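wait is this the right file?? whatever heres the structure
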């Protein structure tokens, strides 16, 4: 019985299929005109973009939470003793304003839109669409109407999303109110005005709520003869009176201004050198990529021709 000898093993030569560093360099150098052209060309485009970009400056105010009213916890406990009397009337007898509420108010439409309207900032924020000579708006549409004036939604979004920057340091509790805009003087003005205005807004709101609470509590006092409830009402009235005095006397009601805004001297963007460098590198990488694309296209074409001849 004869044995069949197995065929000899076939050894592949990976060096014949893989490209060495010299081969890669030769591929890139063969079509060097691609990256030598695209790199500088993209750099020139980057220079044009960088020089045409508007300078943006940033001013910021450092704020510290003024702290909640110390009577808030006692009021809540006493409110429970009233058996839901205040809650049934829809009266909030808690005092103070926490940081989260103050920040949310600062970002709200109810707070920002009156400020933007008082300062007539719509023409400043949409200056590209306002014709100062004819005093008309450019860009009438179905949403804006024939007048072409930006809507309150557009005004709020542009200011709150592109200009107003608020951040809170969770470790220290400090709040930074920043304004980013083209004119450094305006960034400083808006940042300082908003920090003062939010304190005034929350102080006036607290005063109004306290007066409403006092009116309600005094009315309940005249309508009940139960001694325990009257004692609780007297205590609540005393606490609300203290809240009213605090709101009237404390100008920095929600935030203490640690460091007011000052006129910035250095823009925060655009980073022109970074734009030019990134553009040039991107153009160069694109040129190198095209070198390999053309190389593999030529290789595939040659293999196809050799196959047809064979």
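ok assuming it is, sequence goes like this
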């Amino acid at each position: 019985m004869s044995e069949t000898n197995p065929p000899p093993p076939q050894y592949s030569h990976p060096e014949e299929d893989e490209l060495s560093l010299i081969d890669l360099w030769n591929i890139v150098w063969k079509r060097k005109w691609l990256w030598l052209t695209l790199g500088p060309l993209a750099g020139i485009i980057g220079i044009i973009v960088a020089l045409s970009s508007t300078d943006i400056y940033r001013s910021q105010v450092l704020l510290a939470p003024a702290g909640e009213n110390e009577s808030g916890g006692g009021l809540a406990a006493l409110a429970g003793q009233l058996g839901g009397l205040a809650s049934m009337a829809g009266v909030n007898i808690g005092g103070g304003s926490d940081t989260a509420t103050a920040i949310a108010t600062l970002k709200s439409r109810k707070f920002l839109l009156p400020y933007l309207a008082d300062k007539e900032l719509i023409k400043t924020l949409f200056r590209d669409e306002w014709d100062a000579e004819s005093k008309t708006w450019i860009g009438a549409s179905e949403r804006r109407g024939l007048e072409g004036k930006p809507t309150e939604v557009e005004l709020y979004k542009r200011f709150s999303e592109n200009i107003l920057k608020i951040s809170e340091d969770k470790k220290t509790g400090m709040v930074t109110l920043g304004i980013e805009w083209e004119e450094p003087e305006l960034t400083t003005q808006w940042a300082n005005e908003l920090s003062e205005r939010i304190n005034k807004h929350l102080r006036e709101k607290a005063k109004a709520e306290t007066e409403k609470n006092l009116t309600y509590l005094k009315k309940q006092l005249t309508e009940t003869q139960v001694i325990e409830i009257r004692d609780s009402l007297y205590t609540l009235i005393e606490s609300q009176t203290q809240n009213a005095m605090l709101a009237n006397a404390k100008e920095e009601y929600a935030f203490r201004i640690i460091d007011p805004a000052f006129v910035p001297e250095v823009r925060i963007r655009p980073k022109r050198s970074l734009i030019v460098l990134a553009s040039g590198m991107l153009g160069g990488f694109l040129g190198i990529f095209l070198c390999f694309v053309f190389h593999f296209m030529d290789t595939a074409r040659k293999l196809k021709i050799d196959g047809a001849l064979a």
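Residues 8-16, 69-83 have pLDDT under 50 and may be disordered. so i think its the right one actually
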